[in-house]
Design brief:
- The protein is α/β, with parallel strands linked by helices.
- The chain is built from twelve helices and 20 strands.
- It folds into three domains: 90 residues, Beta Barrel (OB fold (Dihydrolipoamide Acetyltransferase, E2P)), CATH 2.40.50; 83 residues, Dihydrolipoamide Transferase; 320 residues, Rossmann fold, CATH 3.40.50.
- Helices cover 29% and strands 19% of the residues.
- The strands form five sheets. The chain has a seven-stranded parallel β-sheet with strand order 11-10-9-12-13-14-18, with helices on both faces.
- It is elongated.
- It starts with a strand and ends with a helix.
Length: 502
């Protein structure tokens, strides 16, 4: 399949540059790593290397030396000896991220944010005759403006950011206030936040946080629509779009990004420690290759996707900062396949920033607790709070000290990471509340004194997996506030008491 040669983003603020020269000739064999062309951006000329092998086919209407080019412009293709380069329409400047078989009828129609839709056999011939700047494209998506109805004031009629903002300001329909129920988002337009693994415990609270901010969401998950959505999100949760499938299905991933106009990503999908230990091969496929597939789709949609966050884990560390597995001062290694896979994703995210300027924020929660946490050894505090609300007995099956992060804090960290992604590949730790199990039981007893005598704990000490040199999330968001253990436990007990009464 022909490989598109596109204009990369050389700096965080770069939208346009100037084409300098091709460094290879049309029809010449190019090898990965060889200098392919040069462009000028931010007052510096930079040679751009080829990312693959192939025969260079320069687009017939490509830029001439000194002409302006935009991030995402398609300059040509790399093809094999028996392939022909697809035609490149000079009016289409944004990379779509959609790859279609050469035998399929290509009938492309513009969506509101300029990303092409999935073609159909009976679609009419293409009618794209207008161009829009990448910055205007993003602003149109943010403001919900159908850019295809806007007249451009730029050179040759190009639509600029000011044209989009003028169109948004002329609308008479007021923007709705932030709704509280998922039902309010049925049929909502505009770009969406993709949440992978949104059917899980943390994913459910992430959806709630996003919906309360008035944002449109779409979930990609291998599981079915969970009952916890209704309990946590409330009426209308059945309207949340759920795409069942795998991150490894790259055609499906492309369709999700295109059809739902995804412009932010929160990546939570993963196999957890027990599954990774039993089947490391499958754990690596889902956790590592699945993450790479998602990063690749973000790269293919870089003109539109503006930020992303993903779940890492304190499992990337050993038991303690001075654990024997450490090979240098302050360094220790994961003790499980799950931890090794999470560390791999952190390193991969760093490479996507270094190579392609794909910014991301990795979040390392400690023990996440709160309403609807039901699975796993560390679900003990959440289940004990539920038992206390019901007046039932419960024994937490571990001892020792560990850091606890209330689930709404965890959800907020992923949402802010995706919505406020700063330049770079950041990985941050949640501060949590360090406590032993006796302190957890005391917090539950304070919220439900009548249940104190029915709660207990026993079992092996839980590994702390403490970060040797933590970089807390407040380094990115100085206004970050952490929910105390007492407050988080109180909210958890209150959640279950409210459900009992209703």
């Amino acid at each position: 399949m022909p490989i598109e040669i596109i204009v990369p983003r050389l700096g965080w603020s770069m939208e346009e540059g100037a084409f300098v020269a091709w460094l290879k000739k049309d029809g010449e064999l190019v090898k990965a790593g060889e200098a392919l062309f040069s462009i000028e951006g931010d007052k510096a000329v930079q040679e751009i290397e080829s990312i693959d092998n192939g025969i260079l086919r320069i687009a017939p209407h490509g830029p001439k030396p000194g002409e302006a080019i935009r991030v995402g412009d398609i300059l040509g293709h790399l093809v094999s000896t028996d392939e022909a380069a697809p035609e490149v329409c000079p009016a289409i400047t944004a990379k779509t991220g959609t790859q279609l078989p050469s035998s399929e009828t290509r009938a492309i129609t513009p969506s509101p944010d300029g990303i092409s839709e999935i073609p159909t056999e009976n679609s009419p011939p293409p009618m794209l005759t207008r161009a829009i700047s990448p910055r205007a494209l993003r602003v149109a998506a943010e403001l919900g403006v159908d850019w295809t109805t806007v007249s451009g004031t730029g050179r040759t009629g190009r639509i600029c950011e000011k044209d989009i903002r003028a169109a948004a300001g002329s609308r008479t329909t007021p923007c709705p206030s932030t709704p509280r129920l998922a039902a309010s988002f049925a049929g909502a337009r505009g770009p969406a936040v993709l949440v992978t693994g949104g059917c899980g415990f943390i994913g459910t609270w992430v959806l709630r946080e996003l919906l309360e901010r008035g944002l449109r969401v779409v979930v990609l998950d291998a599981g079915e629509r969970p009952a916890r959505w209704q309990r946590v999100i409330g009426e209308g949760s059945e309207h949340i779009p759920l795409v069942q499938g795998s991150l490894l299905d790259r055609d499906l991933l492309t369709r999700v990004f295109v059809e739902h106009q995804v412009n932010r990503v929160i990546h939570l999908a993963a196999l957890l420690t027990p599954a990774c230990q039993v089947d490391p091969w499958e754990g690596c496929r889902v956790n590592v290759l699945g993450s790479v597939a998602l990063f690749e789709q973000v790269r293919a949609s870089a003109v539109r996707v503006q930020g992303s966050s993903y779940a890492s884990s304190v499992a990337v560390f050993g038991d303690e900062p001075d654990h024997a597995s450490g090979t240098a001062e302050g360094e220790n290694h994961p003790l499980t396949f799950y931890g090794a896979f999470k560390k791999s994703v952190e390193l991969i995210a760093e490479q996507y920033w270094r190579q392609f300027r794909i910014a991301s924020v990795g979040i390392r929660p400690q023990v996440a607790y709160g309403p609807e946490r039901e699975v796993g050894l560390t679900a003990g505090p959440s289940l004990a709070a539920r038992a206390a609300a019901r007046g039932e007995a419960f024994c937490i099956s571990y001892t020792g000290s560990v850091g606890y992060d209330y689930v709404e804090d965890v959800a907020r960290s992923f949402v802010r990471g995706a919505l406020e992604t700063p330049p770079g590949a950041h990985v941050v730790d949640l501060p949590g509340a360090m406590a032993n199990v006796d302190q957890v039981l005391a917090a539950i007893a304070a919220a439900a004194p009548e249940a104190a005598s029915k709660l207990s704990a026993g079992g092996p000490a839980i590994p702390a997996h403490a970060p040797p040199n933590p970089r807390f999330i407040s380094a990115l968001f100085p206004d970050w506030k952490t929910t105390s253990l007492a407050e988080g436990i109180g909210k958890t007990v209150g959640f279950y008491r409210k459900r009992i009464r209703s």
